[in-house]
Amino acid sequence: MSRKIVIIILIGTIVSFGLYAFGLNKNDKATPYKDIVNNNQAEIKITGMTCGSCVTKIQDALMKVKGVSSPKVSLAKERATVLFNPEITSAPSLVNAINKLGKYKATLANVKNSSELQKEEKERIEKAKLFAISINGKEIPNKDFETVLGKQLQNFGKVGKDFYPTTRQRERMVAEVANSMIDDTVIQNEIGKENISVTEEQINAELEKLKNYYKLDEKALKENLQAQGLDINGFKEEIRKGIRLNKYLEAKVFPPRTPESKKGFLYQQWMSELYDKSDIRIYSDEILKAVDSSNTASGGCGGGCCSKKS
């Protein structure tokens, strides 16, 4: 795995430990998030997506199916979640609509009926009073999520020209914190099954590489860490986790002599598989909307791949 990927992982962890104490937005009266009355929900596994243009193409194809509402396509998770009226269309019809595009392979992963969805929604609203997210049975209290989010919000006020983020900026930060927590938990659950050791020498060597990369001396490093609410020991722990992840990927995910250009794709595929076997439940309204928005955010790919007309 390239050092660039390692640095991105480490920086992503540092950013999510930002600085302030703003809580999650809560409605006085919780209301169901999804339009689930009389609708079923299909979860569809999709392979072959490469960019935001793929997300747009698939969403457009699903919206053309009569009886469909709220199709949400995630490039990172390689999945689509679609609400549909079972009296008008069916889950297999949704799969066919994607496969007809000719560029992707869609398979039906799960279908829930309206009764199941309403039961889940009722449970979610009740859980949201105390918990933000549940990851493989581990429930994260609202106060713990708010602490991490608050730190990131305060850091925004320190480094940006505006003290308070816009609604869209806050939404992105909420999604970043949630996705970071989810990714870190599912990754650590997986690699924790392996006996992967990391020496102090390896940690210090990686630390020196990062200092050289960012042209930081010891004093500048400490000042940067303090600005992010971290100390050197906390930073070393994140480096240790990054090294363990790299060792796992090289041993279990990347075949021998895998080109660097293919490692990003294999990593994304591995993460998608981890999500497939994970039980992730988001209780908070604000987090749910932010994560949905981040998962379905689309963008072009510079004129390549699926953005070209077939």
TrEMBL record:
Keywords from the named record: Metal-binding
Pfam families per UniProt: HMA, SurA_N_3
Gene3D superfamilies, per the entry: 3.30.70.100, Porin chaperone SurA, peptide-binding domain (1.10.4030.10)
Family annotation (PROSITE patterns): HMA_1 (PS01047), HMA_2 (PS50846)
MF-aspect GO terms: metal ion binding
Domain HMA: 40-106
Domain of life: Bacteria
PANTHER family: P-TYPE CATION-TRANSPORTING ATPASE
Protein name (record): HMA domain-containing protein
Source organism of this protein record: Candidatus Schekmanbacteria bacterium RBG_16_38_10
